[in-house]
Design brief:
- With about 230 residues, the protein is α/β, with parallel strands linked by helices.
- Helices cover about 45% and strands about 15% of the residues.
- The protein is built from ten helices and eight strands.
- It has an eight-stranded parallel β-sheet, with helices on both faces.
- Helix 10 links the parallel strand 7 and strand 8.
- Helix 6 runs parallel beside helix 8.
- The longest helix has 14 residues.
Length: about 230
Amino acid sequence: MSHSIIREKLDRGEFFLAPGIHDMMAAVIANKVGFEIVYGTGYWMTASAYGLPDAGIATYSQMLDRVATLARTSNAAVIADADTGYGGLLNVHHTVQGYEDAGITAIQIEDQEFPKKCGHTPGKKCVPLELMTDKIKVACEARKDKTNTLIVARTDVYQAEGFDASIRRGAAFAEAGADIVFVEALTSEEEMRRACDEIDAPMISNMAQGGDTPMRTGEELADIGYACAIYPAT
């Protein structure tokens, strides 16, 4: 069952951040700290569980088991990485329903080709825009709780096609029905502000240490215009 807290915060315009949860010890610590929202990052759960890089090696079944365990262990609403949806449109449909049944509140899918890579590594390739918007539409239709189960749509096109292409994709993702838009690996605060100004949707920022995007505090990200942020490695 999806939590209502993320939808409520978005509707109120209340900024929130989510720490990355890479194993269930971290989930229990997050419970004790009192986080209301946490992030199940594919990179850390793959690395922690299997000692593998974030390169599309972990399967849907493996990741579903990990995020389901996180949802059972955590008191918080969970945002969970679902990579590319693990295939075509039918796969996206089943991925969204599987994650939702497992208790995930916000399901993140991205526009990379399979096998995908970490968003801050070189050599990424993206699917055509039309395919990704179709994936978003399928994901939105597949969820049972149309209010509280949220679709987070991420674009990794910046590296190959630049900032303007990233903005075009983000805007198209919002139009296709994404609840939160995720423009990955922006390289300056100016680009971050422009993305928030030009895309008509709640925006999420990825604060990954060692990544391409400048690290900022929650207060600074809220001022830039973001609705929320993930700190996947923290």
